[in-house]
Amino acid sequence: xxxxxxxxxxxxxxxxxxxxxxxxxxxxxxxxxxxxxxxxxxxxxxxxxxxxxxxxxxxxxxxxxxxxxxxxxxxxxxxxxxxxxxxxxxxxxxxxxxxxxxxxxxxxxxxxxxxxxxxxxxxxxxxxxxxxxxxxxxxxxxxxxxxxxxxxxxxxxxxxxxxxxxxxxxxxxxxxxxxxxxxxxxxxxxxxxxxxxxxxxxxxxxxxxxxxxxxxxxxxxxxxxxxxxxxxxxxxxxxxxxxxxxxxxxxxxxxxxxxxxxxxxxxxxxxxxxxxxxxxxxxxxxxxxxxxxxxxxxxxxxxxxxxxxxxxxxxxxxxxxxxxxxxxxxxxxxxxxxxxxxxxxxxxxxxxxxxxxxxxxxxxxxxxxxxxxxxxxxxxxxxxxxxxxxxxxxxxxxxxxxxxxxxxxxxxxxxxxxxxxxxxxxxxxxxxxxxxxxxxxxxxxxxxxxxxxxxxxxxxxxxxxxxxxxxxxxxxxxxxxxxxxxxxxxxxxxxxxxxxxxxxxxxxxxxxxxx
Length: 515
Hints:
D-inositol 3-phosphate glycosyltransferase; 6-stranded parallel sheet; transferase; single chain; 21 helices; Rossmann fold; D-inositol-3-phosphate glycosyltransferase activity; 8-stranded mixed sheet; alpha/beta
């Protein structure tokens, strides 16, 4: 579907956009080339409803809001056929509970104030940490009891038993949603206004895919599916009682998808066997940095404090770095801590989003091993700054465990961040990552299940940095194959073929897309 003057590209993500660097950098590249881009994303507390980042318009909405979650949204998704029964079992009881809670909201607010409904949600305390989280948890539990007592004493439309049942159903079925959450995403998105001329809908990940089908139908535009993972074989977010659900949802949506994008050759090959449209375009997770330097490309930054500065160790102290979320055993960072036992004097820093329970698990393990004094957890930085921040480390590490086909074929951000920081990297012995470091000569593999093997690999890189230094050929390959400008070119080529060139009045900005 090619138009003479394409309108706005709608990009859908279930994350808040500043926490989703892949979605944002793709949108930035399209906008810099001249396309008008609008991102619809989650709306956490503290963010404005409408925003703009580097010319990309942002509309935030409560992706999984209780008030916007309805049974009717599921009933309208007639394209869900093979997945329909599984989706109905998960989604409909949850949506019914949401409808009851939404109906009772006016009663609660009339008697307990405008924040009454929010105080019934677990997010009332879960979004906080430390003492404030404990205080809010106590308030949350007390408020639930107060509401039940109140409903027994009044002639509310909904009895205390029904409110209690709805709350119980809401909590129980919310935990069982998995990919059925994608219906709630559409149910809430459908409340937003879409007026004007549109060019395409770009759905990121399976949680936005059914919504992408519905919105593309509504607007009469093509649909692009951007699979950041191989969804049917992820290590997490797969229901034990319904592992086939992601594949069924994708199969139901494939006939409505006009183009596919994914992150690695291996994942593209898997999708090519199932998706009957054009071969998926591979847009790798390269950082937005100038290939000639590790300094960030975005403006307004006067200074970036490197990881070595933040840890506070001199240049002669070996420093290993991990970027991204710690998570749990599936990412293998517990094995890295065990490897530190064999590497006296080596410091370890993690740069990325902090999650209290995961960080506590990690630090508790470090303490048990006696290495906690050599471990530092650092906050996240702008994705474009990561290569600069980690550039003073001796070695980067990616110990992803071989627990799923998705992990086996992964090409995570941390690979590219290390490569463009000119920091050698030790990676799991998994095919895609192994090919990357061996082809470029910028690191080595290790047995990711063995602390001894991890320690040996780290020691080899720390002791022999020249062996893994970038050659002119490495730099050429990074620029021509793996750099973000090259990935942006592929993304832009897809859209030029799908919807035509951007509007004439926006073309003057196109040169900045490749900078």
